[in-house]
Amino acid sequence: MTAPLRLAIAGLGTVGAGVVKLVQQHGGLLALRAGRGIEISAVSARSRGKDRGVDLNGYAWEDDPVALARRDDVDLVVEVMGGEDGPAKATVETALAGGKHVVTANKAMLALHGDEMARLAENAAVALRYEAAVAGGIPVIKALGEGRAGNAITRVMGVMNGTCNYILTEMEATGADYADVLRDAQRLGYAEADPTVDVGGIDAAHKLALLSALAFGTKVDFGAIKIEGIERISLSDIRYAAGMGYRIKLLGVARMNADGLEQRMQPCLVPASSPLGQLESVTNMVVIDGDHVAQTVHSGPGAGEGPTASAIMGDVMDVARGIVLPPFGIPVSRLAAAPKSTSGAEAAYYLRFMLQDQPGTLATIATALAKQGVSIDRMRQEEHEGDTAAVLIVTHACARAQLDLALAEIGGDAASLADPVAIRIETV
Amino acid sequence: MTAPLRLAIAGLGTVGAGVVKLVQQHGGLLALRAGRGIEISAVSARSRGKDRGVDLNGYAWEDDPVALARRDDVDLVVEVMGGEDGPAKATVETALAGGKHVVTANKAMLALHGDEMARLAENAAVALRYEAAVAGGIPVIKALGEGRAGNAITRVMGVMNGTCNYILTEMEATGADYADVLRDAQRLGYAEADPTVDVGGIDAAHKLALLSALAFGTKVDFGAIKIEGIERISLSDIRYAAGMGYRIKLLGVARMNADGLEQRMQPCLVPASSPLGQLESVTNMVVIDGDHVAQTVHSGPGAGEGPTASAIMGDVMDVARGIVLPPFGIPVSRLAAAPKSTSGAEAAYYLRFMLQDQPGTLATIATALAKQGVSIDRMRQEEHEGDTAAVLIVTHACARAQLDLALAEIGGDAASLADPVAIRIETV
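The joint structure predicted for all components is written out below.
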């Protein structure tokens, strides 16, 4: 029997403690499945004395995670400290340079330094795996990089931030507005005290950057992602969209166009009857379109101790079984530098205008849209409040640039009482 | 660079031709991802002259698939002939015994001879992979055997026969009855001329047998699966169930109970709002419950040329990348012989009684159920047709044996105009 695989756990927050619990609970099962034992040699965290609900007595302790990554009795470092730079990056670099495998949940670090880290791993012929970094407990890195390896991927998209999906579905369910639901989410632990990284779409965009690289064989290019958060989504738009058969989701989409790679993380309308439209609460979902397989849909818990530990151990088990693949599916030297797509595939849009209820305003809108070649699929005028009428439009597919010209003209009209709202409708 | 992986394709029906097309179309991409070329050396099928829409000129031809499996210029045999015994089995056995990897879509063969085949593969230290055998294009064997390898699996279930799901969803959508929809499905190519293997639940049960073994580390035990098809599902039950918030699915469920392994393939009610309940047409879905990850849901096309070829090539790519795992996750010598669970976890049931509309009949039902300790969650009496009333009951969780005693008593009552219907309600 092969010698046991010896782990070091760098970081003992919720996830790190979850990994320790899993190894302690399932030692026999893991060994049976891996064909070798899975052992923890050493752990590291900021505060040694803290009670984490797990017995750490059998493991060596290191105050310094970089020292942990240098230990001779470690084959694989599980990095669950977080932080895009600093100790996490130093720890991973040290481990890889020293010929140790790394399994990490750190999406920010990989989104910003993924190519560099992958090169280190490949040079040392070790694994750098990150299933837990994307969509938590859903094995979507595996599905995309291995299960779908026979396909040219045409699009990958998903709802990958539980906080945002919780807020959007709660707003719809309770009729509370954004600020109130965010406060509740913070109280329940679904949102951080500073929620910017979540509600601003940054966390989900980190994940999208990794999926893009893996799907299209391109360099990790977080900076090229167009990012828009959910802060400005109003209860009215959620309700109007629902009335027209849609739901609003913070949706990440990566697609290879003729002129380059399109990467967007933004609120989108999706059909309420689609799998994405039916997604509730903190659950994540990733949708993969391949040329031969057509579409597969993967959903599950996007965060939390158990699901994240499960994803980490899936990676650890692969390493224990001897699987070492290039982190982004192909050698990092072959990852293409795809230009940022500026064509922007055409899309249909949901538009909302708040207008003074007077003759001629509808004509103003219709004329401005027509002038830019934007044609109207459906139109509704909703009940007035005082002198204000909400006019809702679903367009046919159009270019965003043309639409923006029309919206600027309409927004500048005296009858327009608020900036027009435009939300993309994604084809699912 | 590693030498190319040389394939032989045994069987050139829709799927076999699809694999050839995929290799021809994506040769460069596959080589980039695998780190080595993927080539076809030889092919075999019954009729050499037939036009299959692909150019086979570059490949050696064998009339006999067993001779194909013996060729020296082949590293891996793709078996897509089908049939649980006969040439398919002989071909796979020959390939494995000769130290060649095998990738197959043959669920019937593995459901009946899986352990024996796995032993041959392990003895020769080659791969025997079957992603395409279960739920077509969805990489669920990979998700369960690798992605979820850190979890104890608590339940695996799914809708894995597109024909059945098409028939059930079409009946609901169109109001046509079973026989008419089956005829349409046959015309559209969604059902075979002899549909027994599909509508009888046998095809789906083959798949469940493989998922069970992989999930629970048990010997493949197709014979222990309780199988019931959809032939007796009536439009009335579909509509009554819908009225109570449920949909009827042919659902396979495998769960490890205290007394052994529970394996069932049978029509079940699931909540209409659940992912399983929302599944339409020929799409497949597999739901995996693990102790740490909780639940992940995987859906996609369950059959067809492209999806099946995609699944096969996912397996081929893994082999090309050097991945050889025990076919059922752990060595075949360690697969447990789980007894067939006879306890049968308790469940709620949907019941339908067709009763003569006369005083006292409801009391008869209520009394008979109460006598067996079956308690009622919800009850409805639907509109009469002539002198007949349909009484619908949703029970609380109860043991099937007790329920059957009650049903026998009610069915024997003079007021009962048809055999009572009882369909399990699965917790999702």
